[in-house]
Write a structure and sequence with these properties.
By secondary structure, this protein is mainly beta. It is built from no helices and 3 strands. It is 0% helix and 28% strand.
Length: 50
Amino acid sequence: MMTYGYRREPYGIRARVSGDGGRTWSTPVTLSDDGTNGDLGYPSWGTAVC
């Protein structure tokens, strides 16, 4: 999964998923769309491997 700031209206955070090691990606999933401007920081997401 990759998360990223969407810096066009509606501003927010989106994610995409890849099932083949990053060769192809899913359509975007909106996690939030309530940003007030394009300064959204740098969202990140990860998993722990045990």
